[in-house]
Amino acid sequence: MKRVYVNEEWCLGCHLCEYYCAFANSGLADMVKALKGKKIRPNIRVEGDAGISFAVSCRHCSDALCVSGCLTGAMSVKDGVISIDKERCIGCLTCVALCPYGAVMPSDDGVVQKCELCTNHGGEPVCVKNCPNHAIVYVEEAER
Prior knowledge:
single chain, two-stranded antiparallel sheet, 5 helices
């Protein structure tokens, strides 16, 4: 299965992946209307200091603690992609506490959010498409 990987040596720390992710998940067609004056809530986030930056996103673990620990069954795996059923999520944040990568985050609407590999946008994740330095890639695990 394809996964998102980050090469921290190439990451500029520009945060464009965050903006494109937030825009893609906003449901709006105009980036300015979607993001201007709003606190963005991307499913990927850039961390780092001292000249090293890297993007943190869901690893879609094969034995995911977030899925097994979900109290309502809102988190599930289909074709290797971990996704959230927002109708079933009660916002208990157990999955946030269980994720060893910090990739599951609270959202503004009382449930959780995380990278779902842009399955609702088809094809390559937008963070990968819009990384100016190609630090984020979407490849098979074996190709890495």
